Each structure stands twice: as C-alpha cells, then as structure tokens.
Amino acid sequence: MSGIYIHIPFCKQACFYCDFHFSTSLKKKEDMISCLVKEIEIRKDELQNTIIETIYFGGGTPSVLNTEEINLLINTVYKNHTVVKKPEITLEANPDDLSEEKIIELSKTPINRLSIGIQSFFEKDLKLMNRAHNSSEAKKCLQIATQHFNNISVDLIYGIPDCTNDEWRTNIQTALGFGINHISSYALTVEPKTALASLIKKGEIKNVDDKKAQEQFYILVKKLTKANFVHYELSNFGKEGFFSQNNTGYWLGKSYLGIGPSAHSFNGVQRSWNVRNNSKYIKAILEKTLPIEREILTKTDTYNEYIMTGLRTIWGVSLDKVRNDFGMQYINHLEEESKKYITQKLLIIENNILKTTQKGTFLSDGIASDLFMLNE
To answer: Of these four, 9, 16, 112, 315, which has the most CB atoms within 10 Å of its CB?
Structure first.
C-alpha cells in the first residue's frame, strides 16, 4: 500500500512562521495544475505493483484550488494508478477559503477528509502569526464543515508568545466543542530566514519560551486523553478510526510519491525530492524531464529514520525488527544508548518494543537523535 502527496505551492499571504515552499502570486496556477497532471503521468510506474490508499493535498494552501482543478488531479491519479475502493483523500484548507458554498462544493468531490489550519481561536495570536483568517471565520467554517464532513482534522499551535495556559485550554476546548475527531498540534518553531525569526531578532515579537511550550504540550495531552483521543504520534491525536492514514503511512515506512515543487518521495530504498522553485519546476515538466534529486539510503540512514519515526509514535521501535533487519551491531548500540533514558523513565521497553513514556514524549526527537548510529 502507498500514498500520493500533491504539493499545491500557493498561499494568499505568508504566515510569519512558515518555511514551506509556496508563492503568494497565483499567476502560474493554471500552468502549475497542468504540470502536476503531467508529473503524475510521467511518474506512473514509480510505485510499481502497489495500491494507492491515500491521496493528500498539502501546501501551501490547497484550498485555493477550485473543485474542477481538484477533480482533475484526483481523476489523473485514478487513471494512472490502482486505488483502493475507499481511499482517504485529504485536503488541507484555511478557514478564509471555506465559505459555505465552497464546503458544499468540496463535499461533492471525492475529498473525504479536511485538515483545517485554525492554529488559534484568539485574534491576537492570528495577527502575531500573520494568518489570513480571523477568529470568527475559524469558528464559522468549523460549524459548517462539520455538517458536511465527518472526518475533519484541526491544526492548533502552542507556545505562541503571550498565549496564556488558560487561553491555550480555551483553544483546545473550542475545537472539541465542534465535535472534531482529530487534532494536529505543533509548537511554534522559529525557523531561520522566516519573518518570525526576523521580528524576534528586532525585538518586535517576544521569543518563544520553550518551558511554556512544554507546559502547553502536557495540557494538550491531558485534555485530549480525557476526551478519548489517542495520542498516536508526537503531534497527532485522533479518536479511534480517525487517525490520519496518510501520515501513519509515513511513520510506518510505507512508500509514497510526492508530486509538485519541493515534494518528497520514498520507495523503501530511495528518497527523492523535487526542486523548490515554481518556475524551474514548470520548465522541467514542460520539457518532459523530472526536476528531481535522489538519494539512496544506507542501512544506517534507514535505521536512523526508523528510530526517529518509531519513537514519535505509539507503535515504538521493535527490538526484534532492529535485530533482524539491521543486525547485532545496531541492536547492541540501541540497547546501550537507551539505558540512561530508561533509567530516567523517559523510555520504556514493553513486549520487546522501545517507546517513550508520557514524560519522554515531548523530548522524543532529541532522544531519537541520541540513539542514532553515526557510522556504518
């Protein structure tokens, strides 16, 4: 089983914290859609003998597409791949794009899951992040969307400067009040070369407080666990039956094809990625060449990726898999390096599976990097 990710590299405006690839000009949108179609056709044989179970529109802001463009891309996937009977088809969307008319139109397409970038229900937070929507649009779009889609995920950001713990609790409670079955939540991160990094450097915005972000993470875990959500990945919480199949595929090492500028692909042994430039991408596709760089993963690369993704999830790292797939050098290294974290009650071994404890979850990325093998 595999997935297809389609990157839509357009946004109405740039959020201050974002370092994903996008353009705020829609001039090349028509050419881009045409080239996305061509890339799907050109690369139809890359996922040989696999069945597509998820299609994911990410970005950027895929909700800038009209339903005709969405249907064209989905139909192109169906023409060039074998797709399961009921695939999960997700569209990332921003509240300002989701008018009642647009939601009803989307409900008539094969899209069956919306991932809505709310981030916060507080006006001051939205302004600080330079989001294109306001608080009332966020609430209104959820009110309407939940009437037409039963599989909705909401994005929320914690650790925002001047967002108090009580306000953070209100954000979570507001989302739950709409009967949402999935929440993705991320710490506000200061990426280099973003507007946020520049504004913090100038002193116009307070820096992110890591201690407060950690507090708000644990508030999130406690509230969502109480509301019967499963904390199945570091940043993802879902009710049973509503986990993101697309993202779960990434964490479990399934193959996927990334279409569009900056999109990444993985086939089990090789990782590849498209150029992060709309003009270069369009030019290459029109010339029927692929603007792709490729990297063959070594055994150590594959081991390190397994440790990183495994420790972020409830499925953990199988010690048997490490022993069988990678060999004694790797299992000995893992067992030795994980001892201190087990002693500190940050890691635990259950049924021969190495997992983070609740205390260790927030630190999982740092712990994983400590368990990496540096040399083959």
So the answer is: 9
